[in-house]
Design goal:
The protein is an all-alpha fold. It is built from five helices and no strands. The chain has helices spanning about 15-40, 45-50, 60-70, 85-95, 105-115. Its main location: nucleus.
């Protein structure tokens, strides 16, 4: 039985790979921006909700995103395609928020960072060794 062999894979092209990764990251961030635009009002609830089967629309997904952001190491650099839209959404809220003890996630932190004049996302430091 003759089998057709698949053509050898195209040689790895660093530029094409980087473009594809960048495109994917942009699509992912756009997806989450749209999600927060539509369901962002549930974020304060989701950050405090402890009910595993909560019936509030969007709570379960938002809760997972929020919990991811609490442990994500790429969040500070702004390179995580899940955390970045979440943090941008929270930052936009914080800029307009006048509530002193706001229950919105990251609101206090963003206000503090802005007050200190620091950039919201830190650039990655080179790792040696």
């Amino acid at each position: 039985m003759d089998r057709d062999h698949a053509a050898p894979a195209a040689p790895h092209n660093k530029n094409t790979c980087a473009a594809n990764c960048t495109s994917y990251a942009q699509q992912s961030m756009q997806k989450w921006r749209l999600w927060f635009h539509q369901h962002g009002e549930v974020l304060p609830h989701a950050a405090r909700c402890r009910e595993p089967r909560c019936d509030v629309t969007g709570c379960r997904v938002t809760k997972r995103l929020y919990r991811h952001s609490l442990n994500c190491l790429d969040k500070i650099e702004g390179t995580c395609t899940v955390c970045r839209p979440l943090l941008i959404y929270c930052a936009r809220h914080a800029v307009a928020c006048k509530t002193r003890l706001c229950p919105f996630p990251y609101c206090y932190n963003v206000k503090l960072i802005r007050q200190q004049g620091r950039p919201f996302f830190q650039r990655a430091q080179p790792k040696y060794g």
